[in-house]
């Protein structure tokens, strides 16, 4: 009788484990789908919540994580993707799990460039105190794109108007002590050329402007900002992208990505996005690539203003304060080059921030 009871207990135990494994298998399959829903939605916070701190992605000889994969994706804004998943196999243990499946994403860039890919993928899961988390994603491409990505979608992230100056500024930033909780100004020359500590009368202010930088460069160096966990971040970006003919949707998408990265990595930071400033006729002499670009400036600003509430930042419409009725930068606020602010222009800028 004891042997029969023991055998019955063993059967019940095994049945319970099988049932638990089946439940976990269903849960993990749903997690895979939700992870790629997060990729499609560009939801950084969701992806981070689903993965371990040491989460890593292996693809085509490269090692990525959530941050770096999304930095690469955002280079191709405006961007959308739909994922179809198939051929799941899932194996569950007490503290870890393994899944392989096929992924069939359809990509659209700038609403016109479309291509389909096929991948064989493997996910490794780890059971933590907070539940199952994804720890490793391995991606193997099975098919080359049906349409080659045009070179214009690859060039912007490598183009800098002043690459040597960029590296010099980056070296300076790396040499500075890690100061947390201050106020950071992130931007291009319009940010760099200001003495923000004097203008704001605050020694905690950090200037992270680099002349000639575009939104791609700012994405590349964003970790320096996030690691300092500023109380406030002011983002001034876009005019160099416009000079390089980067599409409006890509510029706005990159600025949105900067905001989302900071929100995910430094949730307490208050984020402010400053409007792109117009230029005036004098720009023809020193910066001819910005001639007749004010309509593009206005379109970027309009989209940023519309995005502000949903994306979680405050929009500062400095352009409206320094432009004439025709939308050109007023000479009294501009340097002779027709692009950069003079002392009076910075007073207006600082005054809007203080107020």
Task: Describe, in plain words, how this protein is organized in 3D.
With 355 residues, the protein is α/β, with parallel strands linked by helices. It has 14 helices and 14 strands. It has helices spanning 2-41, 44-50, 66-74, 163-175, 189-192, 196-200, 215-220, 222-226, 239-243, 248-265, 283-286, 294-311, 318-322, 343-354; strands at 51-59, 62-64, 79-82, 85-92, 96-103, 106-109, 113-116, 118-128, 131-143, 183-187, 205-209, 232-236, 270-274, 314-316. It has a six-stranded mixed sheet with strand order 2-1-9-8-5-4. It has a five-stranded parallel sheet with strand order 11-10-12-13-14.
Rg result:
25 Å
CATH class of the largest domain: Alpha Beta
Query: Can you write the helix and strand succession as a string?
Result: HHEEHEEEEEEEHEHHEHHEHHEHHEHH
Domain count: the total is: 2
Strand composition percent: 15-25%
> CATH homologous superfamily of the largest domain, by name?
SGNH hydrolase
Q: So what's the overall shape?
A: elongated
Oligomeric nature of the chains? single chain
Strand order of the biggest β-sheet: 2-1-9-8-5-4
CATH architecture of the largest domain: 3-Layer(aba) Sandwich
């Amino acid at each position: 009788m004891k042997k029969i009871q023991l055998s019955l207990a063993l059967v019940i135990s095994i049945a319970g484990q099988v049932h638990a494994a089946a439940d976990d298998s269903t849960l993990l399959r749903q997690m895979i789908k939700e992870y790629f829903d997060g990729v499609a939605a560009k939801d950084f916070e969701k992806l981070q919540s689903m993965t371990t701190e040491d989460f890593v992605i292996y693809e085509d000889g490269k090692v990525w994580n959530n941050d770096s994969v999304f930095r690469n994706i955002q280079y191709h804004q405006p961007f959308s993707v739909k994922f179809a998943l198939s051929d799941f196999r899932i194996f569950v243990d007490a503290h870890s799990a393994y899944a392989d499946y096929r992924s069939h994403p359809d990509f659209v860039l700038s609403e016109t460039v479309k291509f389909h890919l096929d991948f064989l993928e493997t996910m490794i899961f780890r059971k933590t105190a907070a539940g199952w988390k994804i720890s490793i994603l391995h991606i193997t491409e099975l098919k080359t794109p049906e349409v080659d990505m045009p070179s214009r979608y690859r060039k912007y992230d490598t183009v800098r108007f002043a690459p040597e100056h960029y590296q010099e500024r980056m070296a300076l930033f790396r040499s500075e002590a890690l100061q947390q909780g201050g106020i950071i100004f992130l931007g291009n020359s319009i940010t760099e050329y200001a003495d923000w500590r004097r203008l704001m009368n605050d020694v905690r202010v950090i200037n992270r402007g680099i002349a000639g930088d575009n939104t791609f460069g700012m994405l590349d160096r964003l970790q320096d900002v996030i690691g300092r966990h500023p109380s406030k971040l002011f983002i001034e970006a876009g005019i160099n992208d416009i000079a390089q003919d980067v599409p409006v949707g890509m510029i706005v998408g990159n600025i949105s990505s900067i905001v989302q990265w900071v929100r995910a990595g430094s949730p307490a930071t208050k984020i402010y996005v400053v409007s792109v400033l117009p230029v005036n006729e004098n720009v023809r002499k020193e910066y001819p690539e910005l001639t007749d670009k004010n309509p593009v400036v206005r379109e970027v600003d309009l989209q940023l203003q519309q995005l502000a509430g949903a994306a979680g930042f405050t929009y500062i419409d400095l352009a409206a304060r320094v432009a004439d009725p025709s939308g050109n930068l007023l000479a009294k606020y501009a340097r002779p080059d027709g692009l950069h602010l003079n002392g009076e222009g910075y007073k207006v800028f600082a005054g809007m921030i203080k107020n």
